[in-house]
Task: structure prediction
Amino acid sequence: MSPRLTDQRKEERIQQVLNAAKNVFIKKGYGDASLKDIIEETGMSRGWIYLYYQTKEEIFEALLDYQDSEYEKSLQQLKAESSSSWELIQKIYATQLHDLETGGSGLVPAFYEYFLVGWRDTSRSELLQKRYEKGVKRFENLLQEGVRSGEFTPFMNLTDLSKLISSFQEGIVTHAITIGVKAANTQFQFEALLQYLHSLLHPKAE
Result:
């Protein structure tokens, strides 16, 4: 009979699985990665893995949830380091550009592979819709903070504005990944996106 694990030990094992899965998905993408690959990367037995996850899909979606929580933490850190909402937006895009330029796109290619290749799968489609709405709402809340503080005076509904910017941003990232940062001139595209967003928000001069 296996010894009972403490909650802390369970969390450590789950984190071990997610870290291993992230390495595998970054190296192989979603389609070419297998549950066997993830098990081997963890150094754990198949039985231990099955205590927490039954499929590669379950692991990937759990990893996305974990990545989201880590992003929220980094966003809070950027907020603490920013003197205005506009400065925060600039830092967000600067960080994203830096990640793309240094090959740090991480799970993004696997993310697109999972959702776009599997778009006919109802559960994936619904999950993507929820993630899209969550991302739009996160950006909208950021803009709303700027409006409340008197920093932004937008001439567009904030929800529509957030959806518009999300579409542009996704396009920039997709091109950077598929054809390369240099060929796509990703830095220029982010600069153009910021200029366009500036024209929509009219940030108050400091």
